[in-house]
């Protein structure tokens, strides 16, 4: 009989976990450096809470639990519930790095349990929020080794204005957004075809195609939007301009991309997306959702960004693999030459652990040869050997497994040598 | 309409999360210092995997999900599944700090979603394992501020021998264990009554009562066990002795408690339990379960300990509350005297964040007074003020909110001052 995980679920073995923990810690450190507060909510929510977000996309994806409950499918719904029923000093800035669950068909790189890393600002309509979220995501990507991400910005009010200007009726707007959401994955020709198939007039579809194809500096794009859509787009165009200007204070500028949609009903203003690089594609996205919190009771503007950390971890794992990843947590294995020196090994381990050096001892009562085999297999960087000579001198023999160098040193000397080294 | 979490579930707001994260980081650091490897498994497992552990205790407590799945109720079942289907260098030592879910009736201090912190050693029968697990748990408790925990040890083979010696039939042994599990919560009189009610003879119940009441040094207890139970208990008594001796190498000694059971069918040898202190009671427990991994395919000895971190966090939260806990993550809030100095505030924030100092800026475009109000409410330790004077001099005015002291200093001086301070 073979026991496995359910479809779309994963075990993370130690070598993978080392990469995952390192990635999450770096991201958490950056989120905290911007003053975002940790908030955790349960995995299980009431179905009525989850279904409040609405949209067909979500409804079928909830893992249901008897008693009218389900597993959360994102971190924004629980945030909205929490802020609607608590009073925090505003703006409330929170981060959350946690798993979510979706009952969609697993594919390569898409799982039914996966982690998200979100930061959100609730209670402010200022474009400073968008700028800070983008700066924070950019810094996190930098820390993870992606120094030149591409930031794209758009505004749903501009897209709404486009729909209005081209005379698309309310009930067809989702079809338009759904089609636009495929820009980059499909040709403009196919996207136009889709819109027409969904009942949008050929004239409107052509106008939309032309509009979203515009390319130029941000300044020119904003002028183009104002000129083309006129009064319909004043608010959206001004918001685009304000966000671009707020980002300049942080010494970067997102690129306005008039075709950027990001999902259906949810966003109300700014939307953004970050590619780690030209080849790698999207690793973060988000936007302003000023109506969401209100559906849980107390209206409040909100804006957030979500890092696709599974994507980032997959990329970093590839990198680590080529560098020879190890599952080791311990920096060294302290081998006892004979059982009677185990006690002295324990003494050394205690001294090292108190100084934050991770180390292991023999728990199988093996001979020295077999202790070495284990230490080598486990991937530690050093072996310390303790025997007659070492115990008598209150020292240890430290062997660097990479260079093969050995030296007899005191516990203090060993600590000094190991403290500088990275603990996995 | 009021949206709340389901029964037995909790939101953790920032002030609580700061305590939780701090607790978990300390525990994780200690686990890693002993070389335990991180392993993560999905929240959702196949029902057949979960039900394999068996026992009525568990069966009704699983949150079921359609498609023959359920949420994990502990971290040992997933570990057993993983080690049975992977080959690791042995012993495989893993840690896991993660939530589990149980459909039991919530009570004060008992929830339907709660975290566990486990370390386990798979692949070794050596008493060195028990000693290391206890030493590791003891060190973790020390790091959390519990310097004098009480460690109790027993062995299920001794209890099995007791059942055999007193002639309790196999099918009544669970009734005996269930009754003994209440020692400390109920009088010995009541426990004896319960055994008799469940069909254990009065003679046997009296013998059991007498046996578990024995109190003396570990040496005397071991002699008593050997003398009273004879050949039945040789193996168990020897294991008790071996574990006590292995612990001595770590300079501590657990106290043998002959009434300690810890659950029903699961444990096969050593069992242990740790009280943080006389008043606080049990905060950790575990034991040897040499048959568990084998039920998933590949037999392997295993032993583990689980820290009741929810209990520990509750105790630490109480302590923090009396010290005035704060929800702040940022060390300082950088207030701009007027909007035109926001850009300079961003520049300072960037310099501080690069040095690992957590700080916040104004995202509501407020006047200075209101920025101060927010900073005070958010619980930061410092406010930096930047205005005309500061910008011209490339400095900032740093105000210590506790002492009220203010000084004009350079960014480098501010970094130096703040780097020594604890970031929440």
Written description of the protein model:
The structure is a homodimer of 424-residue chains. With 424 residues, chain A is of the alpha+beta class. Chain A folds into 2 domains: 14-322, 2-Layer Sandwich (BirA Bifunctional Protein, domain 2); 332-419, 3-Layer(aba) Sandwich (Rossmann fold), CATH 3.40.50.800. Helices cover 42% and strands 19% of the residues of chain A. Chain A contains 16 helices and 16 strands. Chain A has helices at 14-33, 47-51, 56-59, 76-84, 127-143, 156-165, 173-180, 188-197, 202-212, 218-229, 234-249, 309-323, 342-354, 368-378, 388-393, 411-419; strands at residues 37-38, 44-46, 64-65, 69-71, 92-101, 113-122, 150-155, 255-256, 270-275, 282-288, 302-307, 332-336, 359-361, 382-386, 395-400, 406-410. In chain A, strands 1-5-6-11-10-9-7-8 form an 8-stranded mixed beta sheet. In chain A, α1 packs antiparallel against α5, α1 crosses α12 (309-323) and α5 (127-143) packs across α11 (234-249). The first copy, chain A, is elongated and about 90 Å long. The two termini of chain A are 35 Å apart. The model of chain A has no long low-confidence stretch (mean pLDDT 94). The interface between A and B is large, with 95 and 95 residues.
